[in-house]
Amino acid sequence: MDTVVLLSCTGLGLGALYFLVASGLSLIFGLMDVLNFAHGALLSVGAYATWWAGTEAGLSFWLAVPFGTLVGTAAAVLLELFLIRPLYSRPRDQILATVGVGLAVPALLMGVWGADARPFPQPALLSGTWHVLGATVPVNRFVLVAAAGLLLLALRLFLARTRYGLIVRAGVEDRAMVTALGIDVRRAFTLVFAIGGAAAALGGALGGLYFGSVNPGQGTGLLIFAFVVVVMGGMGSVTGAAVASVCVGLVQQFANYYTTAGLGDLSVVVLLAVLLLVRPRGLTGRLA
């Protein structure tokens, strides 16, 4: 029983991490129709900025995480302004450009700080364990779940209740009409990209808690599963991405434990294939 509880809590923590990455990816694609292959690079930027602030700059963890998130957000804004925006009408070039950034950023991080993993600073408050139904579960798993839940609530409120959320949704449907009404859709799109980048950077900052370290290829590895989550949840559906993240995290953990190590990744691919055969548009196939 305690093993099942431990695997469930760990799977939920991993799923929460996947959602932190996939939510921004889903938001950007669903609202802007931009397939951002540089999303993993934004995660890596957030992770390394948090690590640098906590170790080199001497900031506490509670200040390092907001710092890393802000750095990742700024990187996302710069990416949208100077690379994505000029290519809105050229989707193929968009993909090539973001793939290039996704390859260049890990190489840059590797060149500056090396290829070895760097120990991630963890506060004493989050380095302990909780006893849940006989299982000893690391506290950071619950921190990830809480962060993912708050992010899901914030994104749904942004899309449904805020002026910019409504503007962006309308701009996706008929950008020319919204522009004719005197509304600057470009500013709203930049805001969406910033929110997506912030979510990825937060995933990188908190991902260090889960893995205990950061490395240049961490964002690329998580990006693969983030794409799986986005496709399973339905392209552009934040709620679908949340449900898919939980499924992927749990399947990975249980498959890796009860079968040969490494089969968890294969199980996720099989789950994706079966789901697409049954529901080609994913779990929801709609926005929000």
From TrEMBL:
Keywords: Amino-acid transport, Cell membrane, Membrane, Transmembrane, Transmembrane helix, Transport. The chain crosses the membrane at residues 12-30, 60-83, 95-115, 135-159, 188-211, 223-251, 258-278. Pfam families: BPD_transp_2 (PF02653). It is a multi-pass membrane protein. It comes from the Bacteria. It is found in: Cell membrane. The keyword Cell membrane applies. The keyword Membrane applies. Belongs to the binding-protein-dependent transport system permease family. LivHM subfamily. This is Branched-chain amino acid ABC transporter permease. It comes from Kitasatospora aburaviensis.
